[in-house]
Write a structure and sequence with these properties.
The chain is mainly beta. 0% of the residues lie in helices and 48% in strands.
Length: 128
């Protein structure tokens, strides 16, 4: 069974930076497409960023493009989300997700139902 555990969340001032980590176990990490989602209270869970198996391709939601960077270290079974220039609107619980799908389509990145495994989430709170 695949397990994902996020860490690195916390309280940060607007304009600051934070790096989230998602550690995977129970599977061959290098075979998984990985994504980051976030969810604020009362809002839908939304796609933030995604990365292919070898890290060769990344995709971002327009709102975070230029501020957030997704990366992975397959030797450490870990995917990261480096966040900078944080805004109040970035406040949310952040979740990592994984899927092994040999027939991946570009339209699948943003869909929650595309992913088979989810972490428990880590809270990011941005203060003014």
């Amino acid at each position: 069974q695949v397990q994902l555990v996020e860490s690195g969340g916390g309280l940060v001032q607007a304009g600051g930076s934070l790096r989230l980590s998602c550690a995977a176990s129970g599977g061959v990490f290098g075979t998984f497409i990985m994504g980051w989602f976030r969810q604020a209270p009362g809002k839908e869970r939304e796609f933030v960023a995604g990365i292919t198996r070898n890290g060769g391709t990344t995709i971002y939601d327009d709102f975070v493009k230029g501020r957030f960077t997704i990366s992975r270290d397959n030797a450490k079974n870990t995917v990261y989300l480096q966040m900078s220039g944080l805004k109040l609107e970035d406040t949310a619980a952040y979740y990592c997700a994984a899927v092994n799908n040999p027939l991946w389509l570009s339209s699948m990145w943003q869909q929650k139902t595309s992913y088979d495994y989810w972490g428990q989430g880590t809270q990011v709170t941005v203060s003014s």
